[in-house]
Amino acid sequence: MIPGSPLIKNFPNHQNRLLKRTEFLFSYERYPLVYYLRFHANKSGKPISSILVPDYMCHEVNKTYRDFGYKVSFYPVSLDFSIDLDTLDNAVNSMNEKPQVILIFHAYGKIVKNLKEILNYCQMKGIIPLEDCAHLPYPYFAHHSENSSNAKFYTLRKVYPVPYGAIAVIKDNQTEFDQFIQNNVKIIHDLNSYKMIKWILREYLKRSIVFLGISVKRSYRDLSQDPLKKNNFAHKWVKLLIEEDEWKIQIIKRRLNYIYFLKNIERFTNWITPIEYDVQTDVPYKFIFYLREDIDKFKFINYFLSHGISTELGLALEDQFSKNDKNPFNRHVSFPLHQSIEFKHIEYICNQLEQFQKLENLNNKVNF
Description:
single chain; six-stranded mixed sheet; globular
C-alpha cells in the first residue's frame, strides 16, 4: 500500500492524442508524484531519497514528501516565480548530495519560460525533472514533447468545483506506471467516466449546500442546449467538465479578467506591485500582488474579507521562510480571478481598494 489511496480508475481521457495521462484519478496532486517516484525507483532499481523543490511551496506538500521518506531541499525562485538557472545550479552544488529530483512549479499559472533550458540542465546533471501544474486548468500545457519533463501533475480542485482530484500525465512508460498503480493502490471506483465524475460532484454539492449555501440553480455559464433538467447542477458540471472546451473557456475568461484587473489597478501601484502574466502563454490563477512593506497585511485582508471579497495571503510556506519578516513572499496577497468573476466584481474590488487607500492615507506615505 502506498500513499493517497483509495483512488478512482477510468477517468475520462481527452481525445488529444499528444496526452499520455494515466487512467487514474488521485485525491491530491502530491500523491501521484510520490507514486511516480516509487515507480521510477522500482523500474530503474535505483532508490530515490531526495527532492529539490522551490522555496515557494506549501509546507503541507513538503510534509507529505518527508512522511514518505524523501529528503526535501529548496532552491530560490524570483518574486515573479521564475527560475534563474544559475541560482538553481548554485542550490544543486551547495548540497552535500546531488538531488535526484527537481520539481518545477508553474506557480499561479505562470509557465516557467526557460523550461527547456532547465530540462537540458537536468539531463546533463542526471536529475529527474517533474512539473507541478496544480495552478493550471487541465489539460492546458499537458502535452509532452522531446522538451518535456518526465511527468506533469494537475489538481482538479484548484480550478474546478470539486473537492478532490489530481491527474498525472506521464511522458514515457504510461502503461507500466498504470500497472504499478493497479498493483499497489486500493481502487474504490471502477465505473464509466460519467458516473465517476457525477460521484465527485455529488460530494461537492453536498458540501456546497451545507457549508457554503450555494444555490443549485442552473449555471449561468451554460453554453449548450442540454436536455437535462434545469436545476440539475451536478449534471451540468459533469457535462462541462467532460467537454474538452471547458478548460478553453476558463483560459479565455481568466486572461480577460486579468487584463481588466490590471487596467483598473494602475492607480494603486504606488503601494501595490502586481505580478505580470503573459496572456499569450500563461493562465492567471489569481490576481497576485505584493503589498508595500509599511502596510499591515492582516489589516488589509480583514478589510476586504469584511466587504465580501475573497482575499488571501500566499502559500503557507516552511517556517524558515514564513517566519522571516523580510521575505517578500510574506507580503504576497491575492484576489480571485476565476472564470465566474465578472467585470463588475473587479470594479467593486477596485472601489474598495480606493476606500482602503483613503482610510490609510496611502497616497501621502513614502513608497518603500
